Amino acid sequence: TVMDGFPMAYRGETERAMGLSLMSSFIGGIVGCTCLLLLAEPLANYALKFGPGEMFMVAIFGLTVVGSLAKDVIKGVFSGMFGILLGTVGLSSNGVLRGTFGVTYLMDGLPTLPALLGLLALPAIYELAGRNSAVLQVKGKQNLLSNVKGLLRGFRDTVRHGVQALLCSVLGTVVGIIPAAGSSIAGILAYNFSKQICKNGDEFGTGVPE
Description:
The chain is mainly α. The protein has helices at about 5-10, 15-45, 50-70, 75-85, 110-130, 145-160, 160-175, 180-195, and strands at about 90, 95-100. Helices cover about 65% and strands about 0% of the residues.
């Protein structure tokens, strides 16, 4: 949604991007809930065996995935390491304050909303300020019918790539089972997997439905 949905919205294909996101999330949710119903108990028992060593390997695994997504692997790895560094701010499990610089508001870590605004929203605002328009000129009259058609087009695109959606859903479920991995790493892994199996993988990031 972030990497290709935004370029699609800039081209005036907002509804199509929303349709892709909605239908793929629906498929992923159905697969995830089914696996949860069938595998919850045995997987919970297995997850309890994860220790510091396994958590460290999960972090290294996440770094390699982030590095593989970037055109410059070194920059990708360092950006991932910078994210880990930001995640260490606050009170550790041993009761030691890290990176707070005496600011009590940082004891619980970096607040999510200000961090997202500063790291993601402001750079996007500065980029948009340098453009002549926030969205390219959209051809044709925009109304409710055209919006619904755009959503349905996104639905059809997802169904057309149904095998890819199912494989990425299974991958996301497997990664979601791993403690401390979560949906963010699952999403990046699925994106990277799609980039490798699709013929137009080089066009990822420019606003392609795949």
